[in-house]
Write a structure and sequence with these properties.
The chain starts with 5 loop residues before the first helix and ends in a 10-residue tail after the last helix. α4 (150-158) packs parallel to α10 (252-266), α8 packs across α9 (237-244) and α8 runs antiparallel to α10. Helix content is 42%, strand content 12%. β2 and β3 (63-67) form a beta hairpin. It has one domain (6-266). It contains 10 helices and 6 strands; from the N terminus they run αβββαβαααβαβαααα. The relative contact order is 0.16. The longest helix is centred in the middle third of the chain and has 23 residues, at 110-132. By secondary structure, the protein is of the alpha+beta class. The protein has helices at 6-9, 73-87, 110-132, 150-158, 168-174, 183-187, 202-221, 225-235, 237-244, 252-266, and strands at residues 23-29, 50-54, 63-67, 98-104, 179-180, 189-196.
């Protein structure tokens, strides 16, 4: 199971999407006094790939805009900017509204997903502070592993079974982590939930780029979770974090706490591939 691509683990014979179709984005907005023109959703244009849906958790004409399928980085930039242009300045700043970014993992193996998660969880609190805002710490709808380690503990257990269960009650129990593991069986993605909806497009695109940097650097540098934790131990928290984000401001003690949590994942199984 560890060396099988995610799409095969969940019963598909082939990947569903193209290799560059990596990002699914959900943007909740409130206070939309400007009607988004119907022409914005006409077939043939990038904007057509947004679906607006009412959301009962939102107020003041709240709408959630959801991409119809994963899109490339270039398309994500055009679509997010285009959506904000269409909505004008009417999107209100609201504590209830958030942005959820799905990163397609269908072509990755479970071991690669575990490796990315190991690195992400080490960096998680620092990235959320810098790119999403310190006020997002402890938010009940996007809990970091430092707030609640249940998603990490469940993921460790799932590796000795058949992966994250697709049972609805399991997916629902995992939903409110800062990274939603329940999206693995449901959408073959990892869902990152920490960003509060901004009033401009730029913070969303910056956050998507941060998520992709974690993926790309981890997959290029490490073959397994144990390699991630070993490099952290060799380099220390500051150098390890700088290898991902040169200007990232960190709390070293907090990063070390996160490392200690993910060490159980790193040593939970014999990872295949390169010698360790």
């Amino acid at each position: 199971m560890l060396n099988s691509p995610i799409y095969k683990v969940y019963g598909k014979s082939s990947p569903t999407f193209a290799e560059d179709e990596l990002f699914g984005i959900e943007i909740e907005m409130e206070g939309l006094t400007q009607q988004v023109a119907p022409a914005h959703y006409q077939p043939g244009g990038l904007a057509y790939r947004w679906v607006p849906k009412p959301d009962s958790s939102l107020r003041n004409s709240g709408i959630e805009f959801i991409t119809t399928s994963p899109v490339s980085w270039a398309d994500a930039q055009s679509m997010v900017k285009g959506l904000y242009t269409a909505c004008g300045r009417s999107n209100a700043d609201s504590m209830r509204a958030g942005v959820h970014v799905h990163r397609n993992v269908e072509r990755l193996t479970y071991q690669q997903v575990a490796t990315v998660l190991t690195a992400y969880w080490i960096l998680e609190a620092e990235l959320i502070d810098q790119y999403c805002g310190a006020e997002r710490a402890g938010n009940l709808f996007c809990l970091r592993i430092l707030d609640a380690a249940n998603p990490l503990n469940y993921f460790i257990t799932s590796l000795s079974r058949k992966g994250v269960s697709s049972e609805p009650h399991v997916c629902d129990s995992l939903k409110y982590g800062a990274v939603n593991l329940g999206a693995i069986p449901r959408f073959n993605s990892l869902e990152f939930r920490s960003l509060r909806t901004p009033t401009t497009a730029a913070p969303i695109l910056a956050w998507v780029a941060v998520i992709e940097r974690v993926f790309q650097h981890t997959l290029a540098s490490f073959h397994s979770p144990i390699e991630v934790t070993a490099q952290f131990s060799d380099q220390g928290p500051e150098a390890f974090c700088r290898s991902y984000f040169e200007g990232l401001v960190i709390n070293p003690d907090r990063v070390i706490r996160a490392l200690r949590l993910v060490q159980e994942l790193a040593y939970t199984t014999n990872w295949g591939g390169r010698s360790q």
